[in-house]
Design a protein that fits this description.
297 residues, binds 2-acetamido-2-deoxy-beta-D-glucopyranose, polysaccharide binding, alpha+beta, six-stranded antiparallel sheet, non-specific serine/threonine protein kinase, four-stranded antiparallel sheet, 17 strands
């Protein structure tokens, strides 16, 4: 092979690349696997989740009206996503935060094990302590009394002990009427910081081992049964997606083609399925490349 051949082969390869990588819906976002109901962006996954979960720069993000939070993991078996809040305090650092809230109409609720502790609330002005009798904060309805041991563990963390506020102001936030729209507006509550823990890793007195962040359950239908059409699509290496005015299900196949079933028999496309412009474009370019190839010999 002379240099020209190599150049041409390279050119062909470059032209073929868009064909190979034309599956629009991603199967991973960074290290996190994307499966139903999550997609990396518009048109992928379940339409009801698109607003809340998106992939930006290889980082999966959970969005509510209070902000955007990195998704650290997804447990598809138990239908839980784990999110962290960059403004949250942990055993390793404290920082000011505005709080964390879920949207009332979002398909997410807090997993029971997730515990929130408010730190550094104003004893004078926080509505949490309004009911405290003579400044005695051990009997405040919005704080869980059983949280005292948790608070003392938290106070063994150096950054938290350095907040210089009495441990009695640490409030394990547990308002009874949490409702589906969990609101933790720290400005309203007159607290400067909070921490969230989703697992104590069986070491309640060793906060350095705790898992900080929030665990959220998600729900995509009444029984949370995986839709059959979607598992068939995923089994055939497709990604569950949707398109059209009515957000109808489509299976986005590795070749870039969408089918209404799965990717096993791409020859049985429904008549509505056509080549993508990219697909057509690639063929045009390849034909052009072949022409160039042919002319040069
Ligand atoms: C397939 O579906 C995805 C997701 O809805 C969309 O972005 C893409 O344009 C569709 N491709 C074709 C060929 O229709
Ligand atoms: C604070 O209130 C709790 C519960 O009502 C009570 O047991 C405790 O003695 C009180 N502490 C002080 C310092 O008054």
């Amino acid at each position: 092979m002379n240099k020209d051949h190599i150049r041409l082969a390279f050119l062909l390869l470059v032209l073929l690349l868009p064909l190979i990588r034309s599956q629009v819906c991603q199967r991973f976002c960074g290290d996190i696997q994307l499966r139903y109901p999550f997609g990396g962006g518009p048109g992928c996954g379940d339409p009801r989740f698109t607003k809340y979960i998106s992939c930006n720069d290889r980082m999966l993000t959970f969005t509510t009206h209070t902000g955007s939070y990195p998704v650290t993991n997804i447990d598809y078996t138990n239908k839980i996503i784990y999110v962290s809040d960059p403004s949250m305090s942990t055993c390793f650092c404290t920082q000011p935060s505005k709080g964390f809230s879920l949207d009332w109409d979002a398909p997410f609720t807090f997993q029971d094990g997730t515990v929130f502790a408010l730190l550094d609330c104003s004893l004078d002005s926080s509505p949490i302590y309004k009911g405290a009798i003579n400044g005695n904060t051990s009997d405040v309805p919005q704080c869980d009394n059983a949280g005292t041991t948790l608070c003392s563990s938290l106070y063994s963390c150096q950054p938290i002990s350095q907040l210089n506020v009495p441990i009695s102001t640490c409030c394990v936030y547990a308002p009874v009427d949490l409702g589906p729209a969990f609101q933790m507006d720290l400005q309203k509550l007159q607290c400067k910081a909070y921490t969230a823990v989703y697992s104590f890793e069986s070491q309640e007195t060793n906060p350095e081992a705790w898992k900080f962040g929030a665990a959220l359950k998600y729900k995509f239908n009444v029984n949370n049964d995986y839709p059959i059409y979607c598992s068939n699509c995923e089994k055939s290496n497709g990604v569950c997606a949707y398109s059209g005015t009515y957000n109808n299900f489509v299976c986005n196949c590795p070749s870039g083609v969408n089918t209404t079933t799965d990717c096993y028999f791409q020859n049985t496309w429904s008549s509505g399925v056509i080549f993508s412009p990219l697909f057509k474009g690639s063929w045009l370019l390849i034909s052009a490349a072949l022409l160039v190839f042919w002319i040069s010999f």
